[in-house]
Amino acid sequence: MPAAIRLRRAVSAIAVASAAAAVGVSPQPAHAAAPGFQLPFVCDQNWTGSVRGNHNPPLSVDWTRGGPGTTANQAVLASASGTVSLVSSVGNYGNRVVIDHGGGWQTLYAHLAGFAVGQGAHVEAGDRIGTVGSTGNSTGPHLHYEQRLNGTVLQSVLNGSAFVDGTTLRSRNCPTTPQPPATDAGMTNFASADFDGDGKVDLAAVEASTGKMLLYPGTGVGTFGRPSPIGTGWDTVGNVTPGDFNGDGKADIAAVATADGKLYVYPGNGSGSFGAPWSAGTGWNSLDKFSAGDFNGDGKADIAAVGTADGNLYVYPGTGTGYFAAPINAGNGWNDLDRFTGGDFNGDGKADIAAVGRGDGNLYVFPGTGTGWFAAPVSAGSGWNIMRDLIGGDFNADGRTDVAAVQAPQGSTGDMYLYPGTGPNAFGSRTAIGTDW
């Protein structure tokens, strides 16, 4: 583990004994069955654990995260159901939470940036209890984690297996209660471009209840005119993505058919409608979170998408003929993000990607390098996880990329807000620009 995130070694035996006493373990039978402990992080996130020889107490695990996003301020979840027996900010542990799971079993979560539960609260596995920080005797953001039986720290067992030092695990701390199916309401599959050729950025969106695509003409002042229907049957495709894929100067739409996984390109006619599509390849249903832009700097529209199996970002270079070349692997860990949209968010003339961190709800801008790769992300604000869809575009015609976003749960209608771009990776105060989206 890098030195920057190692705990200081000078922890006195007195301090350790005091902290152990604070946990307040009651004597229990040593043979009590262990709960089915899960990784204390958001479902599908990858975290790497370290059990050092000098770690105090022994067998406790320090967790850090790789890939896009940061370790700091990520959500910390309960490993199993139980009762919060301690919430404290005293001592070498810094901010810590202890959960009693019954039968003498406890888990401890230390160095937290903040708390999301109070002492005495009942929690279920997967409930948020705090955020990763670096409080107490710590030299960098990480989660200090312990599994205890009758006050003794044991080797952690996670996902059904004993944890081995240096292992990277994927969280299976996922919701187990079936969620009710989303109702067919609101607009989905948003795409932004100048579809009608008037020099202003429009919105195209699919009406979930009917499968019709509607065109909302941009006004150039951050709002949209009355919609008009421009096609039917769009409920049979997903990952709708705009761009000039055939190089004729008009905005097209690419979308993946749910029936056969093929990518279809619908050529725009420059007046707000689209011609008959053609297939641009198979196997695109193994990808998700599409965004488009000239990511490799050759003047042709590309598509970036995340592999559902490996979480890697793949950039498919456009050929300018409505087809795509072999993909570029642009890095891993992108399945830790949601609500992707493309645009030049830092104003350097290169296509970037913006997405919301699943763990912390921050909006991250990944600056494009113009080579099909992306630089380290920049945080552009918090609280974006309340938004259902994000759409990038210069909606107010001031030369900066804005974000339009719908605040609503998936499958329901909500209000749309405009976040005007104010500078590199920054957005101004939002304004409401519509309802029933």
What share of residues are in beta strands?
Answer: 35-45%
- Contiguous low-pLDDT stretches (5 residues minimum) are 1-31, 178-183
- Helix- and strand-based class? mainly beta
SS elements, strand count: 35
Indicate the percent of residues in helices: under 10%
Tally of DSSP helical segments = 1
Cα(first) to Cα(last) distance is 47 Å
Looking at the structure, what is the overall shape?
elongated
Please outline the major beta sheet. 11 strands, antiparallel
Mean pLDDT: 88
Radius of gyration: 25 Å
Record keyword descriptors for this entry.
437 residues, mainly beta, 11-stranded antiparallel beta sheet, 4-stranded antiparallel beta sheet, 1 helix
Could you provide a short overview of the structure?
The chain has 437 residues and is mostly beta strands. The chain is built from one helix and 35 strands.
SSE order and pairing:
Elements lengths: L12 H11 L22 E5 L10 E5 L9 E3 L4 E7 L6 E8 L2 E11 L6 E2 L4 E5 L10 E7 L2 E3 L2 E2 L2 E2 L5 E3 L16 E7 L8 E6 L5 E4 L11 E4 L5 E7 L8 E6 L5 E4 L11 E2 L7 E7 L8 E6 L5 E4 L11 E2 L7 E7 L8 E6 L5 E4 L11 E2 L7 E7 L8 E6 L7 E5 L1 E3 L2 E2 L3 E4 L3
Antiparallel strand pairs: 1-2, 1-13, 2-9, 3-8, 4-5, 4-7, 5-6, 6-8, 6-9, 9-10, 11-12, 14-15, 15-16, 16-17, 18-19, 19-20, 20-21, 22-23, 23-24, 24-25, 26-27, 27-28, 28-29, 30-31, 31-32, 32-35, 33-34
